[in-house]
Amino acid sequence: MTLMLTLKGIVIQILRWCLTIMILGMTLLILGQIFWRYVIEAPFVWSEELSLLLMTWITFLGSALLLMRQEHLGIEVFVEKLPEPAARLCLLVGQTLVLIFCLCLTYGAWILVEKTRNSITPGLQISVAWQYASGLVGGILMSVVTIEKLALILSGRDISVLQK
Amino acid sequence: MMTAFLFATLLLLIFINVPIAFAIGVACMGYLWIEGINIVLVAQRMTQGLHSYPFLALPMFVFAGVLMEHGGITRRMMRLANAMIGHIAGGLAGVTVVGSALFGALSGSAIGDTAAIGSIMIPAMKAKRYAASFAAALQGCCGVLASLIPPSLTMVILGATGNISIAGLLLAGLVPGILMSLSLIAISVVISRRRGYGGGDMADLRELTLAFLGALPPLLLPVIILGGIILGIVTVTEAAVLAVAYAFILSVVVYREVRVSALPEIAFQVVRITVPVLLIISVSYLFAWIITTERVPQQLTEFFASVAPTAIIFLLLVNLLLLMVGTFMESNALIIILIPILMPVVHAYDIDPLHFGVMFVVNLCIGANTPPLGVTLMTASRIAEVPFAQTSRAVMPFLGAMVVVLLLTIFFPSLSTFLPSVLM
């Protein structure tokens, strides 16, 4: 159990750093693009593609981290007003559906990664699969986070942390 | 029939506290499963939805805004606003409006602004014996000024999804935004007079000059952004990243209120603000695919053609619909879901897309502040530590004023289209 918690802590830290580096990298990349185009007058062909790739990864990895931190936009006022057993049931139904959705995303992304493995992007000259891999990694992480929440709901312990 | 299923599932999921992005995703998944369409579409559309260059402007504008907030720029804006109108009755209320309009021009996100300015102004108003519910209601309404005054994130998303000129939209929102600010000030002054919420001393010329000079560098930012876009020198995304560079220089080098070592923390805050919006954009792209497949736009055009003989009646009907759904749906999701459905109808009625876009945003601003669910109103209520029920009552006069501005925007298209037509 402690091993799991340590592992979780490490994954959170890695995610946080990856996200920070990606967003800073993206900013510098677009800035560099302007500089190269107007000052040196030799635009790079791959910068636009790379910044979009970074944004896709930021979205899927960030979504997993925010899902863990309960920071996605949602409306909690109704469930809050329900008595405890009913609120638990609502959360159970909701989270089960979220889990199915995340698995669905993971499966689809996996198929797409397999399919596009050998196609090469025009700008970066890397495999198109990199783009879909973001959904794959994000999907797996989001599924794990949701399973953890489901375990909490089913264990019968206090669910107020999930109602923030 | 399937469209009804889609919307019903979506609403139900939102009510049982499934985050909005996931609620949209689950509803779409259910549809695909029932219709026997390959489920791989989920991953494909979600990834493709993020593949749009203008959307890169979102994290960048947020980055600039967060830097500005940490760099003490909010404080300088508030000082200028205070020097300008702090002395009149209900002065602090007026300062909140003007400050939000000025600062909203920097950060571009409604909830972010409500939190940033509210945490300064709400305690200040409470200290001067303004009712907390009044302070919260006003702040909630002010937060939405950020959606109308450039550079607004909402306008970027609207332009990118509806294929409307983003630069045009940014300019078009300006006059309605100013009208909205003036009407909020007017209402607060009337209420403050009646309840005796006092003003302060009049600022002397020296304070006014100092406050203006202090706020001048950040005030140049919207000028640089809009100028660059209008003159066609940079794209919206590039303008946004230039804003980040300018904000960085101001807060790290000029004002020295942000240390370079604080940068990772600031960057992570950008992630926290933008990722939920980006995920909603991503799943909404899947939703939009389904809506198009179901031929909803065509059915809607036929429906409106039979009930609305003129463009004005169509606009009024759309507004009624928006006012209803806007109270419980997140505004970015609404744009991405509804704009592709409505734009063909808008073209069929020969309505100027800029006029329609601005009207749409004004309407969303009202939704974001309408009880029982208005998101910005809730944020403000939380900061003011008043029960939401009290804020809900206090917001009514402001909502009235906002509806008046909405009607003006509907009936006088030139309020939105005049500036873009002159400047572009």
Describe this structure in words.
- The complex is a heterodimer of chains A (164) and B (424).
- By secondary structure, chain A is an all-alpha fold.
- Chain A has 5 helices and no strands.
- The radius of gyration of chain A is 20 Å and the shape is elongated.
- Chain A starts with a helix and ends in a 9-residue tail after the last helix.
- Chain B is mainly α.
- In chain B, 79% of the residues lie in helices and 0% in strands.
- Chain B contains 23 helices and no strands.
- Chain B is globular.
- The termini of chain B are far apart.
- At the A-B interface, α1, α2, α3, α4 and α5 of A face α1, α2, α3, α4 and α14 of B.
Keywords:
heterodimer, A: 164 residues, mainly alpha, 5 helices, 76% helix, B: 424 residues, 23 helices
Short description:
The complex is a heterodimer of chains A (164) and B (424). Helix content of chain A is 76%, strand content 0%.
Poorly predicted spans of chain A:
none
String of helices and strands of chain A: HHHHH
SS element count, helices of chain A: 5
Gyration radius of chain B, rounded: 21 Å
State the end-to-end distance of chain A. 25 Å
Rg calculated over all Cα atoms of chain A: 20 Å
Shape verdict of chain B: globular
> In percent terms, what proportion of residues of chain A is strand?
under 5%
Strand content of chain B: under 5%
The SS-based structural class of chain A is: mainly alpha
Mean pLDDT of chain A, rounded to whole units?
89
* Helicity range of chain A: over 70%
User: Unreliable runs of chain B, pLDDT <50, ≥5 residues?
Assistant: none
By DSSP (H or I, 4+ residues per run), the number of helices of chain B equals: 23
Report the order of strands and helices of chain B: HHHHHHHHHHHHHHHHHHHHHHH
- The rough form of chain A would be described as elongated
Query: From the structure provided, what is the oligomeric state, counting identical versus distinct chains?
Result: heterodimer
What structural category characterises the helix and strand content of chain B?
A: mainly alpha
Largest sheet of chain B: none
**Helix content class of chain B:** over 70%
